[in-house]
Every structure is written in structure tokens, then in C-alpha cells.
Write a structure and sequence with these properties.
alpha+beta, Ribosomal Protein S5, domain 2, 4 helices, tRNA processing, nuclease, ribonuclease P activity, Ribonuclease P protein component
């Protein structure tokens, strides 16, 4: 994930939390905020210490980043996303995490559902 595609500043996180819309399932909470004129989506990750040690938390973050890279063509570019991992995500492998993210992004209506359905078939 390139530096310009990440949400890093606390100010940006707070703005997305306040102004953005949130959608959730058991494993993830996704906040999304439209940024008109933005050429590429940005992503911020939050994985609590309650989910495990540093190795496990970094593994979860790597899985989430990889899932977003694979879904890059199907996501709307004018958005900033914050993904908060919940406890069940610690016990999931990459494919389960990707499937769960697809589910929550469909709920938030930022994912092109037709393209995803064709890829899954």
C-alpha cells in the first residue's frame, strides 16, 4: 500500500469518525467518507491490542491490506476508509477476512457488486 493511499494523521481519523458513515459485521467495522476529487481511495487500519500480540495484529493488518489491493478495481476511488478489526478477526485466515470485508463493503454500498459476483463464480 503506497503512502499516499493511507490515512495516518489523527486529524483525518477523527474527521472520518465524525462525518463518515459506519457499517459493521461481527469481524469488522468500516467507516467511509466521500472525498470528491480524490483520485484513489485511502485506507486507515485499527487493530486493538486485545486481538493478540504484535505478530498477530500485524498479520491481520497485512491480510486487510492485501484484500483491499485485490478489491482495488471494485472500490469507489473518492472515499477514505477506516477498518476496525474486532475479536473474531484474530482467528480467521486471509480468505475468510477477504470474504468478511466484501460483506461489510457491500453493506456500505461502496463496492461494485456485479464485478465481485462475476469474480466469485
Amino acid at each position: 500500500m503506497k503512502k499516499e493511499n493511507r490515512v495516518k494523521k489523527n486529524k483525518d481519523f477523527q474527521e472520518i469518525f465524525k462525518k463518515g458513515k459506519s457499517f459493521a459485521n461481527r469481524q469488522f467495522v468500516v467507516y467511509s467518507l466521500r472525498r470528491p476529487g480524490q483520485t484513489h481511495f485511502r485506507i486507515g487500519l485499527s487493530v486493538s491490542k486485545k486481538l493478540g500480540n504484535a505478530v498477530k495484529r500485524n498479520q491481520i493488518k497485512r491480510y486487510i491490506r492485501q484484500a483491499f489491493l485485490e478489491l482495488e478495481d471494485d472500490l469507489q476511488n473518492e472515499f477514505d476508509y477506516i477498518i476496525i478489526a474486532r475479536k473474531p478477526a484474530a482467528d480467521m485466515d486471509f480468505f475468510e477476512i477477504k470474504s468478511s470485508l466484501i460483506h461489510v463493503l457491500k453493506l456500505s454500498k461502496v463496492l461494485n457488486v456485479k464485478k465481485i459476483n462475476k469474480k466469485l463464480q
